[in-house]
Amino acid sequence: MTLIKSISGIRGTIGGRVEDNLTPIDIVKFASAYGTWIKQQRNKEDYRVVVGRDARISGMMAQNLVMNTLVGLGIHVVDLGLSTTPTVEVAVTLEHADGGIILTASHNPKQWNALKLLNSKGEFLNASEGENILTIAESNTMEFASVDQLGKITKNQAYIDIHIDEVLALPLVNQKAIKEANLKVVVDGVNSTGGIAIPLLLERLGVHAVKLYCEPNGHFPHNPEPLKEHLTDLSKAVVKEHADLGIVVDPDVDRLAFIDEKGEMFGEEYTLVACADYVLSNTKGNTVSNMSSTRALRDVTEKYGCSYEASAVGEVNVVELMKKNNAIIGGEGNGGVIYPELHYGRDALVGVALFLSLLVEKNISVSQLRKSYPSYFTSKNKIELTPSLDVDAVLKAMENKYSDEDISTIDGVKIDFAESWAHLRKSNTEPIIRIYTEAKSQEEADILANKIIGQIKDIVKI
Fold first, then answer.
1. What positions does the domain Alpha-D-phosphohexomutase C-terminal occupy (predicted)?
2. What CA–CA distance (Å, rounded) separates 101 from 115?
3. Catalytic pick from 32, 58, 83, 106?
4. Catalytic residue status for 106
């Protein structure tokens, strides 16, 4: 079964049977529930929703279904066409819209697509809002508009440029210094909308961009998750072109990773660390990331005499804690940078602009910049369990086992040691415990992970 209904949207593989895959009927059903929820929020005459998509092959089909479903509900649609997740988020607020939908399955392979849902602030829905929409979808109580009350579709394909304008208007983006640095950058747009947005941003910043896989045709040239093992072509191109760095984003452009001038990974976990370093060097304030993100952000934050706190995993949880703590920057260790000065969403365009500003102001290479931060290494593992097993009981047993350590149970069990940590959390969709560890060396991280895995196996007698 490859249809996943969750509080954050609906995701699945294109084709197949209704309710088992992401079919046109499932797309219409879920878009109807979302539109109905939008109309329940406020009693007014005109409703407006912004809709955009990444470059997936199924994107146009899915977007047309979504938009015309909303039209059938009497909701006006602002059609961004090919866009990015952060661009849609920005557009919702600038359009004073009631919500937004992005057609993207993020880093999933090309056979996947999804409806990601936004509220009127251009932010992802919280748990109760998502549950409400799931309930509406299953109730079949949606009521559609009469012929004279149908919505209208308005095209606006200028929003990537508008988004770039908003980024460049940020006080901390040092356009002048970036332009004077005469940088050369190779961009891997994984043949999606990052191939449009990132080169346009770099052009506006006066950076020479060498395009690699920047044709937005949806044919991903490699696994679209921006991890080291998927970026060998980009690493080779950076060295061949004698470039200052490489930039890679995922298909919907909310995750960002860098390659240094030697063709080595800067480290996806360190994208946020570097951007936070730059922001904190100019403006003191709090930071937030999720519990599975590197401790290096805490170290950098405390270096400036500021406070760091970790949230449960998930962008909506990070944003909620950022607002509570008045954090000036935050995000996730998967390369997601959230800079509230523009909007509360992971945004690779903002990340690029802040990172390049830091790099040129320090006047050092990307590899030198990476060496300036504390080095941590991660190990990511999982244990598959039988469906009948009480996963919560297993996590509770591990919590008790390490009760003398610094423990957090906000999201699974996070065990903080002096020089390392382990985070154990269950999957919401399958009987799996995910085990993330971090330490001062890869060997130490792997040893800690194997130790934790062994202890879990002893508990469940695997």
1. 392-452
2. 6
3. 106
4. yes
